[in-house]
């Protein structure tokens, strides 16, 4: 895989709470320069102008997932109306841990129905779940009409993406959904290992360093 090919799998990400409008503009410019698939931003940064060929993604219910489904749905609806191409929503991780998978599915479905025209990625916070829970949440995401399952917010103390979680997620969705690996991917080796494990999209904030084969710092 070449750097240009890897770049086409990347959501170039800026989700720091202290991010400014100038930071967003710089991130969009960098994404265009590097040739990434999209930029992933906080929803209150919309609307944004992106060059042709670059998608705009935003998060929803971020980072805790502890929002009423109606709030997540309203957030996704507004984001879609303001030009988002993709929405990355966070599930209620506690509901998954408790085995309330029907509630997880209903939460995802509410967002899906609120923003039918966008690509929906479901952040499951895989490092906080066991294998059984990961499988069940991936199945709920598929049943609810999601387009991707995604490992992590990058903000959870349990950690980010792992090769094991990505392999399990990819095996569960069986190619019917995409798999996005995010959180803690800070080197070329990290990134290509996730692709080899079955990831079809990567969430990176240190994209330039990763593509250059350098080791980056940070969490996302």
TrEMBL record:
Pfam families: DeoC. It is an enzyme of class 4 (lyase). The gene is deoC. It is found in: Cytoplasm. Gene3D superfamilies: Aldolase class I. GO terms for molecular function: deoxyribose-phosphate aldolase activity. Keywords: Cytoplasm, Lyase, Schiff base. One of its GO terms (biological process) is deoxyribonucleotide catabolic process. This is Deoxyribose-phosphate aldolase. Coiled coil: none annotated. It comes from Microbacterium sorbitolivorans. Its EC number is 4.1.2.4. Pathway: Carbohydrate degradation; 2-deoxy-D-ribose 1-phosphate degradation; D-glyceraldehyde 3-phosphate and acetaldehyde from 2-deoxy-alpha-D-ribose 1-phosphate: step 2/2. Belongs to the DeoC/FbaB aldolase family. DeoC type 1 subfamily. InterPro entries: Aldolase_TIM, DeoC, DeoC/FbaB/LacD_aldolase, DeoC_typeI. One of its GO terms (cellular component) is cytoplasm. SUPFAM superfamilies: Aldolase. NCBIfam families: deoC. Catalyzes a reversible aldol reaction between acetaldehyde and D-glyceraldehyde 3-phosphate to generate 2-deoxy-D-ribose 5-phosphate. It catalyses: 2-deoxy-D-ribose 5-phosphate = D-glyceraldehyde 3-phosphate + acetaldehyde. PANTHER family: DEOXYRIBOSE-PHOSPHATE ALDOLASE (PTHR10889). Signal peptide: none annotated.
